[in-house]
Design goal:
5-stranded mixed β-sheet, Tumour Suppressor Smad4, single chain, 3 domains, 4-stranded antiparallel β-sheet, elongated, 347 residues, alpha+beta, 13 strands
């Protein structure tokens, strides 16, 4: 709350700035705590305004506030995880943008100090600043995605695109690679909902896992639709599983093998003493499926058929031995019985 109060301009509209802080708190806390921390913000902001009115030398005041911002950010660093720091940075940029006036150099200097203290990569900071402060054209980078009603026209060479018929305006999204977070901003005048919550136009919101964007006249935009476009670009090469010098010998000591013609996806060269197998699993670009040929199955069937006759013969042999053993046992049993009867008759 101190950070919001210091960065805010004393001459600005306090109610406008307060609404940004309230929006931030509503995403983190229940209503009772929101009211408590809003009161804390009001007190800090009042002190900043009074301090600005009393001090005549503005440069000295700016230097003092810069030191305070640095101390606050250092304390925040120990309490918040990196994804939470990214969210705070988004809210600070929304905070200084919340007026019709242009962002001042003093405000940007404070926010830049915060980003540096939070250890946010320079590239991510530039992308976040461009995404939040600009409501016109975006930079042509692959970290941006635009959803609009232009079926054939892409917004840029590198910007990702999703087509939704009858969508009024644009839904803009950004991917922060360092923390794997997604944020969105609706640039338009229609009523767009995220998980049942009405989104305020030209404001940035985090896109959480499982979220969906809905508008009465368009098909929903799901979290998975967005993620699949960004994850697809991260797959740079295939996954290869390779097994060499594989051998197998049956219990009877027999070993028989045939040569197989190599396949681009699966090559298996079998010799009487050794077999080599190479399996290449291709990871499809926009899917979790793996491309795999049916040669493995055909090769397995071929090897099984080679041993089918041998296995059948073994089964017949075992059955015959079992039958003979049974006959021998019966013969001995009746022989003993006859001997006993003979002794009884003799007596």
């Amino acid at each position: 709350m101190q950070l919001f109060a210091i960065i805010g301009r004393p001459e600005s509209n306090a109610s406008d700035r307060r609404s940004v802080v309230e929006s931030f708190l509503n995403r983190q806390l229940n209503q009772e705590l929101v009211d408590v921390f809003l009161h804390v913000f009001d007190e800090y902001y009042r002190k900043v305004v009074e301090e600005d009115e009393k001090v005549a030398k503005k440069q000295r005041l700016l230097a003092r506030r810069s030191v305070r911002v640095l101390k606050i950010c250092t304390a925040i660093n120990e309490e918040l995880a990196q994804p939470q720091k990214i969210i705070v940075l988004f809210q600070l940029l929304e905070f200084i943008k919340s007026e019709t006036q242009e962002v001042t150099g003093q405000e940007m200097e404070f926010v830049t100090t915060v980003a540096d203290t939070f250890n946010i990569p320079g590239k991510d900071y530039q992308l976040i600043r461009s995404f939040v402060l600009s409501d016109t054209d975006l930079d042509d980078t692959p970290e941006f995605l635009i959803v609009d009603n232009n079926k054939d026209k892409s917004p840029g060479k590198n910007i990702k695109h999703i087509y939704r018929e009858n969508l009024v305006g644009q839904i803009r999204l950004i991917h922060i690679q360092s923390t794997n977070l997604y944020f969105l901003k609706y640039v338009g005048q229609a009523e767009l909902y995220m998980n049942g919550q009405l989104l305020e136009p030209f404001k940035s919101y985090p896109l959480n896992t499982g979220s969906s964007l809905r508008y009465q006249q368009i098909a929903p935009v799901y979290y998975s639709d967005v993620v699949s476009l960004f994850v697809g670009d991260m797959v740079k090469s295939k996954i290869v599983f390779e097994a060499n010098h594989i051998t197998y010998r049956f219990k009877n000591g027999a070993f028989k093998a045939e040569r197989n013609t190599p396949n681009p996806e699966l090559s298996m060269n079998v010799s009487p003493c050794r077999s080599n197998a190479r399996f290449t699993l291709g990871l499809l670009k926009n899917s979790s499926k793996l491309s795999f040929t049916g040669s493995v199955i055909s090769e397995f069937n071929r090897l099984v058929s080679l041993r089918f006759t041998t296995i059948t013969s073994l089964i017949v042999l075992v059955s015959s031995i079992t039958m003979i053993s049974g006959l021998v046992y019966c013969f001995k049993f009746y022989q003993c019985k006859l001997t006993l009867l003979k002794k009884i008759v003799d007596h």
